[in-house]
């Protein structure tokens, strides 16, 4: 009994000495470096370090603000849609954070059972404590990899959330455009049916030719087909949107202007590339550290004493030089991917910005043309009432006005879609703190 107590106390003493030694000899820095100036008890208690602390990527994501105007139709759509989000990316982030928390304590010794046969009939069970005294930077690189893994998961969550809002608002805009076009066509159908009635009466009275009535009926049939198409498109978009939301969004109406510019935020695709670069570099450092000697020590509670080993993790052979060059090339490739992502993002943002400028100009021009077409229609209607114009003259001008009104509506929603696409590229469709 006394020997057992002595062995346990001796093992604990050796454990504390190994922990202190690993803290003093570690070349990793980070959490281990705190032990060099901290009491041993504080080191044994462990230090809580998460990947969120000191992470520029996480801080930047949390500081982002949505460009969706408060109280607008956009916000009324985005809020219930996000509430219904299954957020698979959130589970991945949680998993990555737990892995990072576990890796933050990878400098501590490990304790595990050991069962060995002393003879054919006897087995000895004991507790073995292992500690890595020097890893050539591998432990630090493992912590850096886990932290970068959290950053990658966080950016993917932000991308996933923004994509969901973008999809929902794109459906909303499509439905609103179809609704507005259908409303315009509904008015045009009433007027065209009136023209058809007038022409029918004129044909009955022998004043007009049947060919004119056939032309009007063809135009009326085309309008009816367009109206049915837009009504169906509006119903389909709204049904899909409602399927994404926790509540019905049938009553939401309106379109807002989004204040987006290319310098508002760093594109999420670039942030993802930078986070992946950090993870790739950390992985390369882990591989490179495997070719350096790892100094470890272990103690057995059965009284085997303190033992140690000095050996690299990776086997050293003829291909080691090529492997080291490949590791260096991996780090260089990671940097190039960031530069490529930045270039592609800049190109997409520049495209969206040019589209917004062009569509604003076209929308203004379309508004002017619609007003002119309406003025021409009013003039022809006045002249027709005075007997100076034929019915077919008014029908032709009315058709031009209806087509121009449809074109104005289309440009209006193209502009809204372009602003939405740019905000999605910059990751500004959801508040970072809410994500």
Task: Report on the architecture of this protein.
By secondary structure, the protein is α+β, with helices and mostly antiparallel strands. β1 (110-117) and β2 form a beta hairpin. α4 (73-83) packs across α6, α6 (138-204) packs antiparallel against α7 (210-243) and α8 (268-289) packs antiparallel against α9. The longest helix is centred in the middle third of the chain and has 67 residues, at 138-204. It is built from 10 helices and 4 strands; from the N terminus they run αααααββαααββαα. It has a 4-stranded antiparallel β-sheet, covered by helices on one side.
Radius of gyration: 36 Å
The beta-strand count equals: 4
- Runs in which pLDDT lies below 50 for 5 or more consecutive residues are 1-8, 29-51
Shape: elongated
Descriptive key words:
435 residues; alpha+beta; 4-stranded antiparallel β-sheet; 67% helix; 8% strand; disordered N terminus
Précis, in short:
It is built from 10 helices and 4 strands.
């Amino acid at each position: 009994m006394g020997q057992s107590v002595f062995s346990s106390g001796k093992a604990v003493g050796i454990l504390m000495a190994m922990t202190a030694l690993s803290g003093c000899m570690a070349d990793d820095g980070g959490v281990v470096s705190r032990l060099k100036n901290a009491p041993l008890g504080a080191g044994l208690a462990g230090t809580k370090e998460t990947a969120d602390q000191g992470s520029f990527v996480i801080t930047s994501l949390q500081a982002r603000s949505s460009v969706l105007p408060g109280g607008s139709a956009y916000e009324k759509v985005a809020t219930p849609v996000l509430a219904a989000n299954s957020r698979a990316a959130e589970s991945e982030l949680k998993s990555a954070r737990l892995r990072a928390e576990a890796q933050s304590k990878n400098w501590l010794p490990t304790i595990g059972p050991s069962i060995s046969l002393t003879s054919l009939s006897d087995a000895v069970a004991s507790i073995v404590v292992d500690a890595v005294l020097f890893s050539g930077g591998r432990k630090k690189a493992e912590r850096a990899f886990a932290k970068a893994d959290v950053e990658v998961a966080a950016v993917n969550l932000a991308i996933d959330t923004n994509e969901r809002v973008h999809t929902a608002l794109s459906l909303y805009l499509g439905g609103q455009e179809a609704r507005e076009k259908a409303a315009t066509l509904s008015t045009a159908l009433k007027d065209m049916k009136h023209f058809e009635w007038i022409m029918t009466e004129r044909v009955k009275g022998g004043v007009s030719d049947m060919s004119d009535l056939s032309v009007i009926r063809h135009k009326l049939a085309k309008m009816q087909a367009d109206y049915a198409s837009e009504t169906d498109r509006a119903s389909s978009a709204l049904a899909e949107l409602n399927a994404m939301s926790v509540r019905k969004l049938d009553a939401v109406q309106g379109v807002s202007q989004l204040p987006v510019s290319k310098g508002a935020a760093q594109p999420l695709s670039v942030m993802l590339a930078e986070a992946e670069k950090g993870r790739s570099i950390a992985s390369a450092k882990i591989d490179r550290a495997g070719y350096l000697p790892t100094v470890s020590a272990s103690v057995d509670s059965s009284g085997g004493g303190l033992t140690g080993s000095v050996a690299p993790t990776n086997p050293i052979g003829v291909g080691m030089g090529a492997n080291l060059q490949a590791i260096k090339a991996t780090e260089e490739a990671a940097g190039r991917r960031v530069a490529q992502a930045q270039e592609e993002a800049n190109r997409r943002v520049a495209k969206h910005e040019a589209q917004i400028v062009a569509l604003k100009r076209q929308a203004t021009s379309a508004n002017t043309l619609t007003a002119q077409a309406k003025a021409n229609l009013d003039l022809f209607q006045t002249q027709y009432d005075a007997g100076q114009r034929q019915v077919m003259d008014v029908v032709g001008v009315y058709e031009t006005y209806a087509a121009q009104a449809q074109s104005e509506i289309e440009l209006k929603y193209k502009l809204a879609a372009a602003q939405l696409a740019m905000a999605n590229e910059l990751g500004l469709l959801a508040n970072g703190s809410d994500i």
